[in-house]
Amino acid sequence: WGYTLHGELGNGTSGDTLVSTPVQVQFQAGVTIASIPTNSDPWDTAYAIDTNGNVWGWGGNAGGELCMGNLQSYTTPVQITSLTKVTAVAGADQHTTYDANGVLKSCGANTDGDLGDGKTANAQRPVIVSGLSGQGVAAVVSGYNNVGVLYTSGQYDDWGLNNHGQLGNGTTANSDVPVQVSLPATATQVAQGGN
Questions:
Q1: Count of beta carbons in the 10 Å neighbourhood of residue 6
Q2: pTM over the 0.85 mark
Q3: Which of 19, 39, 51, 83 has its CB surrounded by the most CB atoms within 10 Å?
Q4: Which of residues 195 and 153 earns the better pLDDT score?
Q5: Residue from 30, 70, 67 nearest 47 by CA
Q6: The dihedral sign for the CA sequence 162, 167, 168, 171
């Protein structure tokens, strides 16, 4: 339920409408959903991962965050075929990062280094997040224009907008590659919010 301007309810509708009761997201027949992001989604785009490790997306896609090679809105879920064996997905404000087959990949707007690929160019197809340590990923989280990854070791890295010190690395300079957050102990859970 909610606002459905860009098809973010996934039920085949769009337009300047507020839906105040739940509607069912219209997945293709035979698709069983295993998980949905619990930290955040881009404000007008949504995701789900099925039991086969396929990721599905729908909604605005204004930054190309669905990795479909376009900026088209989708009113029902579409399979993102450029990514397989997806175990986690998190995004915010027109950018998304996916753990696909053990590799972090990002798509969408990249104004503040949100994609973590060492650049600030937008990408409508997956780009690999740079400089990661090769550790197992426990969680991917996202805020307004930044992203973070918690490793199974308890180490936490993040990247993107840092105008208020969001990256936790002692500076206010943005980073277009992951930086390690210095924590007093290993982390077991992480979340991100706005700037």
A1: 19
A2: yes
A3: 83
A4: 153
A5: 67
A6: negative
Secondary structure class of 161 (helix, strand, coil): coil
What φ, ψ does residue 166 adopt, rounded to 5°?
Answer: -60, -30
Binning pLDDT at 50, 70 and 90, where does residue 133 land?
Answer: low
Does residue 153 surpass a pLDDT of 80?
yes
Q: What 3 state SS string does 58-120 have?
A: EECCCCCCCCCCCCCCEEEEEECCCCCCEEEEEEECCEEEEEECCEEEEEECCCCCCCCCCCC
Residue 20 CA: distances (Å) to CA of 9, 38, 57, 114: 11, 21, 22, 33
Beta strands 95-100 and 103-108: pairing type? antiparallel
pLDDT of 9: 92
One-letter identity of residue 151? Y
Question: How many CB atoms within 10 Å of residue 186?
Answer: 12
Backbone angles phi, psi at 171, to 5 degrees: -130, 175
pLDDT for 163-182, tens place per residue? 999 999 999 999 999 999 98
- Are 77 and 125 within 8 A, CB to CB? no
CB 192 within 8 A of CB 140: no
Asked if 41 and 48 touch (Cβ cutoff 8 Å), the reply is: no
